[in-house]
Amino acid sequence: MIRPSFVPPPVFRRLRDVTRYRADLVAVRTAEKQRAEKLLEDAQIKLSVVASDIFGVSGRQMLAALIAGERDPKVLAQMARAAMRGKITALQESFTGYFTDHHAFLLAKMLARVDAIDADIASLDGKIEEMIAPFAAAVARLDEIPGINAVAACVILAEIGIDMGRFPTAGHLVSWAKFAPGVKESAGKKKGKNTTGHGDSYLARVLGNAAVSAGRTDTFLGDRYRRIARRRGKKKAVVAIGRSILVIIWHLLADPRARYTDLGSDFYATRINPERRRRNHVRQLEALGYKVILEPAA
Fold this sequence. Notes:
Layout: H1 10-42, H2 47-50, H3 57-68, H4 73-77, H5 88-94, H6 101-132, H7 136-143, H8 150-160, H9 170-176, E1 185-186, E2 189-190, H10 201-214, H11 220-232, H12 234-254, H13 274-287
Antiparallel strand pairs: 1-2
């Protein structure tokens, strides 16, 4: 049973204050960038269609030129660097709009705000690095989990602490974090949809991002994410992988000697009965409209 009166040690309360403020600033920066993109679209500037990140080195140089008064699409497109040089023609077309001094004034304010937030985030990163130093070993172990980087590891430790004594089992941690789907049932009948409930929003956010990132990797978690997403959708896959990551985290923190070992992306495939795998493949081909005849290979 989790002790409801548990209060994290002061060091983790302070760390939590900093990591949460950082997360809030990242959200504010994202909103400001979205406003800038919307402003460009209002001016018929389609830079975001061509460039994957309009706030990168090339994008910022082009935006600065726009603010300074440059309107020639050819001149703006020539400011592209590195890989973007291969998109010169598309860039010229994207700058064929109606960017006015009004747009320039607002865009300058938005970019200045983004730069100020960047500076604040960098300052907070330095503070977090200083505060997390005594727990560097735990951060390193969590960093080995697919989908989790050093920043995410710091957030996780800030939210759940390092002492797993308050969570007798991994299931207790999962339940506390609200990553264990509950079933509403009465008289043998399920009512409504399964739901995880409302837990720690900061922890949920970092676990959700970690689950999506893990889904892009050639690992056990990546394969599991894709298998669940195909059958039940991406939202359920995120919750399932988030839960798996929490279980791994509990084991790594409960035993300081434990290290993460990936089971491999072929974990499920190598454990399915060959006959069952054959039937599954045949059904999939038949569902696509093929008539399947199996013949043993020579």
